[in-house]
Task: structure prediction
Amino acid sequence: MAGKRRRLADRRKALGYSQEFFADRLGIDRTTAGRWELGKTEPCPYIRPKICDLLKVTPGELDDLLVLREESEETTPTISTPVVVGQIVTKGQPAGEGDDMYRRELLRLLSVAGTLMVLSSPANADVQDWAGQSDEADDIEQHVLLSTHLWQVFALSKSKRLVYPLVHDQLKLLVKHMNQVHSARARHQLCIVACDLFQLAGEICFDSNRYTDAAYCYTMAVNAGREARCYDRWACALTRQAFVNLYDHEYPYATAVLSVAARIAKQGDSQLLTRHWVAAVQAEAYAGECDRTACERALGLADDVLDLPGFVSPGGWLRFDGSRMADQRGTCYLTLGRTDLAEASLLAALSQATSLRRRGSLLTDLAAIGLQRRDLDRFLHYAGDAVDLAEQTQSAGYVGRKLHGVQKQLQPLLSDSRVAQLNDRITSLSASA
Result:
């Protein structure tokens, strides 16, 4: 972007805004925003306060963003412009005060909403009573619809971090309504919505490799589920919390959390598949502890989902429907060192997988099998395809993390130019996550 406003574009991206979303929030055409960043036009004075508010900068900082610069001048930005990860964390440039501000804002909203859940929920309140508050009922319905929509956007988005601004805005609206509700039923329903949003915020953090922030979001979701006595959401939040331990290879901690989640799930809706999802994740934790008997027992319980008539899959906060049991078995068998069983399950899953993220994960596991068998060509085939897909998703957190785990085993093979080239691609992928 020589001679253009790269800092303005970087600031927009650092907040997770697409150019189209940025323009829409300002009430302008996308081409207008594009012309600003290309240095062809200047924002009118009346709209600059809106730009400052949206970009979270002072008027003086905005003036600096609007200065036209050559590439050589772009070495020491006044406002930190790192590679964005979910508007919460960054890599690339050293983290600055602005980056911490995004993270603090999310944690602040979570803390405020969590506190209001407790303060606005009197003991023994009758949650069936709307107390004549028809407006509250309409507000709750809007929250539920928006929450469902956000989960759909998250599932379909190639770049998960781009969902963050929408979640942030919804959290702000949720806090506002928590301060205004009057009926016990409205408070109860808002706790359920909060549990959904907290879990979604955690998923964005998790996909961005920010496991500490993800764990905090999941903890707040656990509290919200408990406050609402919504056992299925409560158990799902605990299960997601256990994933943080799984990806840090803290299997005993994951097993302990999942044991509690299983007990809570038993009190939930028998028409939902919560307990079966918990069992599927338990199997992975048991595999990490090399307990094949417990792993097989948990996989059996999870597999029962395929024989259940009339089950309900709400999507969003509970997307488990048994369709990925082959993935789960493959992952467990790979962890247990049973590459023969793992490969059969993973190939069966790969033939059915449609999402890029899921295919990237399966290909990485198949690449790991190639390494275990010392089959270099097989490894290069699957790992190369996995890197291709991770780059296409524009959200390399989940798959990139798995590839990085495989990368640790490549050191003795780097004399092979093909392995060295692939190693560099994985490194670049990790750096952009």
Remarks:
- Residues 72-99 have pLDDT under 50 and may be disordered.
